[in-house]
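The records we work with from here on pair a chain with its fold. Here is one such record, which you should read through line by line:
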Amino acid sequence: MSTESAVKSVRRPVSVTFGPKSSALLSKSELLSLLRSGWREGCRKIDLIVLHCSDTRPSQDFTIENLISSHKNAGFGDMPGYHFYVRRDGHLYYCRPITMKGCHVKGYNTISIGVCSEGGHRDGPEQIPIGNLNDLEKLQEGGNPPPLGGDKRGASAYEDNRTAEQLVVLHDLLTCLHDLFPSAKILGHRDLPGVKKACPCYDAAKEYAYIYDH
């Protein structure tokens, strides 16, 4: 399904969780206001908006608690390395303040915002240890990446299985982020130099090129 058809079929406020337990239904303009209110000019320069996938199957329920635990086990602290996490039901988690450097792209964390969607792996017999899902590379500055799981599984292990709900939320979130950071480039993790993985399992730069004209 295309983003355009998804937006037409699933037009509704975005369900957002931010902070420890705060949740709200926000319109696109309200989401932008939330992001704008949390931004401080000059705190850091945003050149990139980087899209990721959780490398989990559509039949696998990878909750925000799973994500937090996975990243904590990888040494990222008590909050996910991504700034945003979009569940398959379209729920948006505002995981890390955009003023704060993320832990999602080695070498680019200071100048980027990370957005992760649940999914990206094809359903099949192979099992992925849930604690290692996001330990594909030591994403803090420095550190050596471990062997890439995608290289072992092959390209056939991955697929773009985003739901219509995810497509709508990504559209709203990315257009809001573009409004806030108009010079930032939207791309996938796989598009960065030296990255050898399928993440986010689709051509994010091409798919979201229309946002620059939004």
The chain has a mean pLDDT of 84.
